[in-house]
Design a protein that fits this description.
alpha+beta; 4-stranded antiparallel beta sheet; 5 helices; 4 strands; globular
Length: about 160
Amino acid sequence: MDQGTRPEQAPISGVVVVLLVDFLASNKSWGWMKLAQGASNLKHATGLLFSKVMGSGHDGGFGLRPSSTHQGLVLLFDSLENAQAFLESDIAVQYKQHAREWWSSTLVIDSSRGEWNAQSWAPTDLTKEGLADLSKDSTLVATLTRASIRPASALAFWRYARQWA
């Protein structure tokens, strides 16, 4: 392998769980601890293929000032059964118990571009048992975006983001 290149990984596919939480003010230290732990407290979730713990800007926005209470999880599971089991697990229940507001959704991947941590995603195989039901209402669409902001472009990005905050 040439220096500076990395081996190509096969795209992964499955069922996505998005969990968004706004912690109670009295529980924000618990939330900060979960954010600092990152995905380490999720590693025992059955069928978990990919996980990201995300913070947010103040009041859930995009500003430079971080929110002390808003947090999110994006998880990719190998099956609908494992995704649903996670949403009923102790970890998910703890997030809900510490939250002022809590929302989750189970999604299938329709299309994907780019990589997240050098890992690309592929559209979900809807022929798997139970997954066809997730896509019956094709009018409901969620778009998850993320980007790496190069330092030279950061100022322009934040100026643009503030217009929409």
